């Protein structure tokens, strides 16, 4: 197993989840965020997610956890084997961070943007070596979901693709490589469906609980679309829907009023304690 650290940028839900996956498989991680509050909260959240993964039996037995170090700026990036950007779903913010990172690492360092909807080739213009950039779409929580969508941009190099495939296999994930497009496969299918489910609740046809019960019991959806929205983060879901609407013109991707209201109210799902459902601190 290689011992060079992986740099993860962003200590939000996905950054912490990806860090948990990597550390749980014995890899050293440099977790970077310029928000001191998020950074201070990250170790406790990682411990809770590692404990859940251990209870679920999805981590290698007997393997020592990788060391996680915390950093407040990009000075931690040089020397990383792979850099995974996992900041908020905003193309301008992502391009700015990726541009800064690409100036700090040598050519042939794999740069990974973890995104649910933004086309990789849009982001590639910001980096010095577009062949080094690739996309991933980890599902939440990454340590519990064994398949990862990998997005190969039109300029992504073969060496970058193989480096990321290798890393994912190293941590027990099955990489499925898809071509670049808005929303790729998972978000292009899932996010408009969640939007429709929220619209059904908005229109008073059924409660959130009943929508999820029918989708689970009749159509085999494992958690139900609205519990899934809470897990994704309703704010993140809305950001993704705006990206899809802008880039595809599909009106089915326009966030419905209920989703927009929940974002405005700060009811973003599990991470805030309330979304379509309410959550106790111990379940977040």
From TrEMBL:
Q: Which residues form the 3-hydroxyacyl-CoA dehydrogenase C-terminal domain?
A: 183-279
Q: Which UniProt keywords apply?
A: Membrane, Oxidoreductase, Transmembrane, Transmembrane helix
Cite the InterPro entries for this sequence: 3-OHacyl-CoA_DH, 3-OHacyl-CoA_DH_NAD-bd, 3HC_DH_C, 6-PGluconate_DH-like_C_sf, 6PGD_dom2, NAD(P)-bd_dom_sf
Q: Which pathway is this protein engaged in? A: Lipid metabolism; butanoate metabolism
3-hydroxyacyl-CoA dehydrogenase NAD binding domain: which residues?
6-180
Q: What family, per the record?
A: Belongs to the 3-hydroxyacyl-CoA dehydrogenase family.
Instruction: State what protein this is by name.
Output: 3-hydroxybutyryl-CoA dehydrogenase
């Amino acid at each position: 197993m290689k011992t060079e650290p992986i740099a993860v940028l962003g200590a939000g839900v996905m950054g912490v989840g990806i860090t948990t996956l990597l550390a749980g498989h014995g890899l050293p991680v440099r977790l970077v965020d310029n928000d001191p509050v998020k950074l201070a909260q990250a170790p406790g959240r990682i411990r809770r997610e590692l404990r859940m993964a251990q209870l679920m039996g999805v981590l290698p037995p007997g393997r020592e956890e990788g060391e996680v170090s915390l950093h407040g700026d990009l000075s931690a990036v040089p020397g990383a084997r792979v850099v995974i950007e996992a900041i908020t779903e905003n193309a301008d913010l992502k391009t700015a961070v990726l541009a800064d990172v690409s100036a700090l690492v040598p050519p042939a360092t794999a740069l990974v943007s973890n995104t649910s909807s933004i086309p990789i080739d849009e982001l590639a213009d910001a980096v010095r070596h577009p062949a080094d950039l690739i996309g991933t779409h980890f599902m939440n929580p990454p340590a519990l979901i064994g398949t990862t969508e990998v997005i190969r941009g039109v300029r992504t190099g073969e060496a970058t693709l193989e480096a990321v495939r290798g890393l994912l296999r190293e941590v027990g994930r099955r990489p499925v490589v898809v071509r670049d497009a808005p929303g790729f496969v998972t978000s292009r299918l899932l996010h408009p469906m969640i939007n429709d489910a929220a619209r059904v609740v908005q229109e008073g046809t059924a409660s959130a609980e009943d929508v999820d019960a029918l989708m689970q019991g009749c159509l085999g959806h494992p958690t139900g679309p609205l519990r899934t929205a809470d897990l994704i983060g309703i704010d993140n879901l809305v950001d993704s829907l705006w990206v899809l609407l802008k880039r595809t013109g599909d009106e089915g991707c326009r966030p419905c009023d209920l989703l927009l209201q929940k974002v405005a109210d700060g009811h973003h799902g599990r991470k805030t304690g309330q979304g379509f459902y309410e959550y106790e601190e111990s379940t977040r």
